[in-house]
Structures are given as structure tokens and as C-alpha cells.
């Protein structure tokens, strides 16, 4: 994974008011920490940081007053409504050091006919070198029939990465698509459970005369 260099400035004012002022100036408040070092409170350039964090495990080289700090994002806080970044926690890493991260799972291919594919996991926990974190892992569902499943242990990981989570956890489950009769029966059962009663329409003789 390529490094993204960001130039930071040291932050000396704190609190919600100070953070809002930083964001109004198109910048992002952040903290850099790890390896027993004292946390560094910094301000990052807004647009460049936003672009870099499109990748959830971006490798960020933070330049602060001439000193470089190699980091990965540990927590990105976003506004729940507008989606802009409010604050970033950056974890200091070292070259060659292994870290555990959640990597997106992408499905490829088409399952067998008349099946439904359910993706149980959208991310997979893996251990990898900090400078070689995979952007994603790919799971092929090509030709899978109803009743098939893919467990975490069956996912092929990029070289240098290993599974960090539960190997038996299901990533993908393939089931048979419901027939029209089954779908109607499920709908009727759901309506009955909800107390919905359908009124039967009885045609009266001569009604349309």
C-alpha cells in the first residue's frame, strides 16, 4: 500500500469550540499516538485527509515540524448526518511491524441459478505488515449452489496476511430462492402475526348490471 504524506500542525487549543473552529477552516483535528509515546494533538489538511481516508486502512505519513510519523487510522469520527470528518485517531506503526485490521470483503462471480447470496461479513479481521495492508479480500461465489457457504478459513488472503478472527465464522451463505408459493405463504404468515385480516370481496349478483 502506498503511503500518503500529510503535513500537520501542532494543536494547542482544545474543546468543542476549538474543534469547530478547526473544521470551519477546512481542517481536521486529530491525535497521533502509540508505541508508548506521548499523544500528539495535531491539525490535518481537510481535503487531502478526506481523500486519503477513502481507504479505511490508509498508510499515512504525518509530517509534523520536520518529523515523520508513520500511522494508520484507528478511529474516524464522522458527522452522523452530513458525513464530514469530525476527528481522527492515528496509530503510530513501524515498518515491518504486524498490525491487526479489518479489511473489506468483496464478492465476485455469480452463484448458481435460483439462489440467494447473503453476505454475512463485510469485513474480515486480518494480521498484516503495517506497510502491506491489503486494500480488500475477494471471495468468489461463482457457481455456488444452494446450501453452499464460505467460512473465514476458506478465504484466500494476500501473501503476507493471515486470518486474525474466528476461522469458522461464515462470510457468505447461499440459499435457494423462494418460489412464488413460498413467498405468498410467508407474506400471509407475517400478516397473520401482525393481526392483519384480509376482507374477502364477494361479488353480488347483478352488481354490475
Number of beta-strand segments? 13
CATH class of the largest domain: Mainly Beta
Specify the number of helices: 3
Radius of gyration equals 26 Å
How many individual domains? 2
Largest sheet: 6 strands, mixed, barrel
Main structural class: mainly beta
Structure description:
This protein is mostly beta strands. It has two domains: 3-93, Ribosomal Protein L25, Chain P, CATH 2.40.240; 100-193, RNA Polymerase Alpha Subunit, Chain A, domain 2, CATH 2.170.120.20. It has three helices and 13 strands. It has helices at residues 16-24, 46-52, 180-193, and strands at 3-10, 27-34, 37-45, 59-64, 67-78, 85-92, 98-108, 115-119, 123-129, 137-140, 149-151, 162-163, 170-176. Strands 1-3-2-6-5-4 form a six-stranded mixed β-barrel. A hairpin with a 2-residue loop joins β2 (27-34) and β3 (37-45). The radius of gyration is 26 Å and the shape is flat. The protein starts with a strand and ends in a 16-residue tail after the last helix. InterPro entries: Rbsml_bL25/Gln-tRNA_synth_N (IPR020056), Ribosomal_bL25/Gln-tRNA_synth (IPR011035), Ribosomal_bL25_b-dom (IPR020057), Ribosomal_bL25_C (IPR037121), Ribosomal_bL25_long (IPR001021), Ribosomal_L25_dom (IPR029751), Ribosomal_uL5_bac-type (IPR020930). Residues 6-90 form the Large ribosomal subunit protein bL25 L25 domain. Belongs to the bacterial ribosomal protein bL25 family. CTC subfamily. GO terms for molecular function: 5S rRNA binding; structural constituent of ribosome. One of its GO terms (cellular component) is cytosolic large ribosomal subunit.
Amino acid at each position: 500500500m502506498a503511503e500518503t504524506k500529510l503535513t500537520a500542525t501542532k494543536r494547542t487549543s482544545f474543546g468543542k469550540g476549538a474543534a469547530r473552529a478547526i473544521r470551519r477552516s477546512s481542517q481536521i483535528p486529530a491525535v497521533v499516538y502509540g508505541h508508548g509515546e506521548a499523544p500528539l494533538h495535531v491539525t490535518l489538511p481537510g481535503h487531502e485527509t478526506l481523500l486519503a481516508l477513502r481507504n479505511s486502512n490508509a498508510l499515512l505519513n504525518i509530517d509534523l515540524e520536520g518529523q515523520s510519523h508513520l500511522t494508520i487510522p484507528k478511529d474516524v469520527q464522522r458527522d452522523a448526518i452530513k458525513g464530514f470528518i469530525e476527528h481522527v485517531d492515528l496509530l503510530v506503526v513501524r515498518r515491518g511491524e504486524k498490525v491487526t485490521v479489518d479489511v473489506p470483503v468483496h464478492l465476485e462471480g455469480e452463484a448458481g441459478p435460483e439462489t440467494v447470496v447473503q453476505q454475512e461479513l463485510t469485513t474480515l479481521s486480518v494480521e498484516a505488515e503495517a506497510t502491506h495492508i491489503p486494500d480488500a479480500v475477494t471471495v468468489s461465489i461463482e457457481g455456488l449452489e444452494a446450501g453452499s457457504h464460505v467460512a473465514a478459513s476458506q478465504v484466500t488472503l494476500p501473501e503476507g496476511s493471515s486470518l486474525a478472527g474466528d476461522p469458522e465464522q461464515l462470510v457468505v451463505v447461499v440459499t435457494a430462492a423462494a418460489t412464488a408459493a413460498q413467498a405468498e405463504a410467508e407474506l400471509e404468515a407475517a400478516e397473520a402475526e401482525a393481526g392483519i385480516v384480509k376482507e374477502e370481496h364477494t361479488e353480488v349478483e347483478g352488481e354490475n348490471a
